[in-house]
Amino acid sequence: MPKTDPKTLVIRNGTLIDGSGAPAASNTAVVIEGNRITSVGELPGGINLLDTAKFEDIDATGQWIMPGLIDGHCHLSFGMPAVQGYASARGTVNPGFNALRAARNAQKILRSGVTSISIPGGTWFIEVGLRDAIDAGLVQGPRIYTAGRFIVTYGSIGDYEPSWVGTPEHTLGILANDVTDMITEVRRQTKHGVDFIKLADSTWGDTQTIAREEIAAVVEEAHRRNARISIHSRGAGSTKAAAEAGVDWIMHADLATEAELYAVAEAGVRIMPTTTFLFEALEVGKELGRSDEELDIIKRNADSAVTVLETARTLGVKVMCGTDTGNSPVMPYGVLHAHEAEIMVKFGRYTPMEAITAYTRDNAYVVGLEGELGVIEPGKLADVLILDADPLADIGVLQGGKHLSVVIKDGRQVDLLPQLDSESSVPLL
């Protein structure tokens, strides 16, 4: 059967929020050829929408057009949430099962309007394989930019097992208690195809577990191998140390003082607060078994995170958006990926347009595609959403895919109506 050229996709008559921060523009046409946007604005001459063999027409009258969302902090292979009949803890099932579950989770994320995700940590290099499978068209899911397991020391997040057990492959972290071991792990992970490296300090930021010189050594090795590097750091000195060492972005930073954030601003480093996880943990943590002591810690961090958002905005620190989906049962896939925008608007004093820009143009950085993604303009990758409600009037309409009419990733429309198993309600792959 002879191969036919793909149709040119035309989206017209909608109100465009292009992701750059520019005012919304009504009655706009967006033209897509292949996986790239070729025209934005007036409908170009030479386009005959009656020629259905060459053109596919989407009439977006009364709807809003914007770039695909980018969630800068998702986990897919940790074993969350639980699946009935299988072990519920992270990593206690076999890697094959976790890989298939990760594929299903990726599918759900894409159908919620998130066309790209950054994954700061996974097990068995599952996300590397899933990234490549999605790119090859074998599995439906968002564009993936991924790290491997956290590089941790004793006392870091991920160091949950007794010292005589260490950190087996199914756990979040890989123990590296000196610079030599850390550099070796950077080399191992880059050999296996990760896009970036993740260091991890203490769970809640009460102590600094990774020394300044260790952070600097890992940053140097990662950059030498053309990999970016991020760090889980809530405070306790590691935020300032990481910024001065030249990490590419800092996850959380929710206990950072104004002086630490000033150091971050001076270094030109980006932060990703992931306040969604903190807020959701406070909302439902009690019923899921979190202790009062832990909930007090989470509340402390959540309250401080609000101050961090405001201070970062004042100091000009670039804030990116991530949810920590998959880290815990409080963060289900496909549901809360835009919640960070709501928090930024409600508590951080950002405008809806600023929040959208953070979720699109600015978050392109965290998937390694700044300048290529996150803005609807000629030459950019064609990740586009069409919504039936105005996110500038109510930022909450971005949540959970409830107002999505169309999702386009790489110039192709995504099927938003997966077949469901009537008994389990689990989407079939």
UniProtKB/TrEMBL annotation:
Per the database record, which ranges form the Amidohydrolase-related domain?
64-414
Gene3D superfamilies linked: Metal-dependent hydrolases (3.20.20.140), Urease, subunit C, domain 1 (2.30.40.10)
* InterPro entries linked to this entry: Amidohydro-rel (IPR006680), Metal-dep_hydrolase_composite (IPR011059), Metal_Hydrolase (IPR032466), Metallo-dep_Hydrolase (IPR051781), OTAase-like (IPR057744)
Q: Which GO terms describe its molecular function?
A: hydrolase activity, acting on carbon-nitrogen (but not peptide) bonds
CDD domains according to UniProt:
Met_dep_hydrolase_A
Quote the protein name from its UniProt record. Answer: Amidohydrolase-related domain-containing protein
